[in-house]
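Predict the holo structure. Ligand: 1,3-dihydroxyacetonephosphate.
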Amino acid sequence: MKYRIALIAHDKKKDDMIALAGEYKAFLAGCQLVATGTTGGRLVNELGLVVERKHSGPFGGDLQIGSMLVQGEIDCVIFLRDPMTPQPHEPDINALVRACDVHNTPCATNVASAHLVLSQLQQQAAN
Ligand SMILES: O=C(CO)COP(=O)(O)O
């Protein structure tokens, strides 16, 4: 099965996202990836992954990914949120995380949980 994974990171978490995605690069390269604009740009430029890029988060990217999720087009969300910095689009962020809960979609919001989710999916993909 080709997993459909959304990758999103706030600015202070983008380096963590690149490091994380780098660790799982071989697995992620076999997945269908979607990301918010700036996160996606870094994944493409720094890791060479193929990523569908939506708008940047503050311009509605979280909502676009939320819409895909509601349509059943996303299997898992890795959303490295910055809990220490207020975001202008906080309602959009909450809407995406809420949509994950409504639709029982795995949503990892920190690096430790992202490792658990990605390692599990990677293992499932190998079996
Ligand atoms: O703001 C974001 C998620 O809420 C992320 O957007 P960018 O990837 O465009 O920085």
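Residues 8, 10, 36-39, 56-58, 61-62, 93 surround 1,3-dihydroxyacetonephosphate (CB under 6 Å). The chain has a mean pLDDT of 97.
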